[in-house]
Amino acid sequence: MKIYIIDDHALFRNGLVSLLESRKISAKAASSPEQGLEEIPDLLIDIILLDLRMPSMSGLEVLKTLKERNEQTPVVILTTSTDENDLRDCLKYGAQGYLLKDMDPDELVDSLNEVATGSIIVTQDMTHVLVKALKNELTDSESSFELLTKREKEVACQISGGHSNKVIARELGISDGTVKLHVKSILKKLSLSSRVEVAVMVTEKGYCK
């Protein structure tokens, strides 16, 4: 697994590189968002670990830029922020994970391995914040779930299991492109903006039991 870190704090950045390499994980780091955005297109990496609070450009701005570029590498936020708005905004703009910097190193490595297999990871300490942040949106979406087609419901249930488009395609015997179209339709019908919101709604309401 190859990890690319964007963090302006040298001590933390260098320590994280050493930690990951001690676990046999390849790690490279950028000291600024600008450096990261310049280097990413030329790198073969599995996960981008992104700090949220940086002076020249916020992690959220980096996320938006990567989304505009249609960057396919999963982005995981690694931050000290437990703010509800930060969590919601990062997931809205495509982050596949939201982790806290004070987490146990073994838990970090386990989380990165899960993200690499297509899972969406939110640190356990933030789960209650996630539910609170999405509560109003999910309430508005509940009645719309029945508007989904049978296949869209199947895809939504696969999303709730944290599966990637490739895994969903294999499980349902359809193409990646078809899965993408179903996901787009699901988000539109449920008035949601991310796969994480779909996963939370489906899980909380037990639609796929």
Task: Give an account of the 3D structure.
- The protein is an alpha/beta fold and 209 residues long.
- It folds into two domains: 2-122, Rossmann fold; 131-205, Arc Repressor Mutant, subunit A.
- It is built from ten helices and six strands, in the order βαβαβαβαβαβααααα.
- The protein has a six-stranded parallel sheet, with helices on both faces.
- Helix 1 links the parallel strand 1 and strand 2.
- Helix 8 (165-172) crosses helix 9 (176-190).
- The longest helix has 16 residues, at 127-142.
- The two termini are 33 Å apart.
- The mean pLDDT is 85.
- The modification 4-aspartylphosphate is found at residue 51.
- Residues 2-116 form the Response regulatory domain.
- Keywords: DNA-binding, Phosphoprotein.
- State the CATH architecture of the largest domain: 3-Layer(aba) Sandwich
What is the radius of gyration? Answer: 17 Å
Low-confidence stretches are: none
Count of helical segments?
10
Beta fraction = 5-15%
Basic shape: globular
In terms of structural class, how would the helical and strand content be classed?
A: alpha/beta
CATH homology superfamily of the largest domain: Response regulator
The beta-strand count equals 6
Fill in the CATH topology of the largest domain.
Answer: Rossmann fold
Strand order of the largest sheet: 2-1-3-4-5-6
Distance between the termini: 33 Å
The major sheet is characterized as: 6 strands, parallel
